[in-house]
Amino acid sequence: MGSYLVCVTGASGSVYGLRVLSALSAGGHEVHALFSAWGARVTLAETGEGAASWLDRAGIPASRRHDPADLSAAVASGSFHLDGTVVAPCSMSTLGAVASGAGANLVHRVCAVALKEGRPLVLVPRETPLSLIDLRNMSSLAEAGASIMPASPGFYHRPATVDELVDFMAGKILDRLGVAHSLCARWDGAPTGDARPGDHHGEPS
After folding, report:
1. Dihedral angle sign, alpha carbons of residues 175, 70, 66, 94
2. Which whole number is the average pLDDT over 115-141?
3. Mean per-residue pLDDT for 9-20?
4. DSSP 78-128
5. Per-residue model confidence as pLDDT tens digits over 103-118
6. Distance (Å, rounded) from C-alpha 89 to C-alpha 105?
7. pLDDT above 50: residue 198
8. Average pLDDT in the 47-64 region?
9. Environment class of 75 (CB within 10 Å of its CB; exposed 0-12, middle 13-18, buried 19+)
């Protein structure tokens, strides 16, 4: 089992981070959670439940719930081993702070640590449209070793619920971490009779 940190910041789409967090915990992994101040507020606004309720349900102990203002937290040090860090959703302000190296809170710090230690860092921006500044920040972070995974779920698996869309994206994030899961079905070609002339085999291009 691995050890992972899931951060939720103030962009819309808190359900993505919550789903990754709960899936990792259900899989028996050691999960650390970090909500920015606005991440906690957006979680409450979007789900009707506070971060503490979600963490209680996922079985995350108090010792693994980190204060965004606490730069002395264990996860702030490169000597504390994590197998991966996820920021889902990742606000544009968080993205910009990490890209510039001008961190001001624990979320920024843990991202900087992941990059300097060469550990997996998955950033899940949820914003549209994207400014040139946003795109350049993403490019800089990709060059530094981060995985940029915009929250853009697919539809080829014919989702019938919002939960299925969330699971699709959460599954993609777990795939990037190398974590086994069964959140969504794998593409194995178009169903018989569905392919149109000229369609490619395999995942659509």
Report:
1. negative
2. 98
3. 98
4. TTS--SEEEEEEE-HHHHHHHHHT---SHHHHHHHHHHHHT--EEEEE--S
5. 999 999 999 999 999 9
6. 16
7. no
8. 98
9. buried
Query: CA 53 to CA 75: how far, in whole Å?
Result: 22
In angstroms, the CA 154 to CA 21 distance is 21
The DSSP string of 52-89 is HHHHHHHT--GGGEE-TT-TTSGGGSTTS--SEEEEEE
138 by DSSP, 3-state: which? helix
As a whole number of angstroms, the distance between CA 92 and CA 131 comes to 10
Q: 28: helix, coil or strand?
A: coil
Residues in the chain: 205
Mean pLDDT value of segment 120-134:
97
- Domains of the chain (ranges plus CATH)? 3-177 (3.40.50.1950)
**Cβ within 8 Å of residue 148, ≥6 positions away:** 123, 125, 138, 141, 142
Structure tokens that stand for 164 in this block: 């299925």
In 3D space, the residue among 11, 12, 18, 10 whose CA is nearest the CA of residue 173 turns out to be 18
pTM for this structure?
0.91
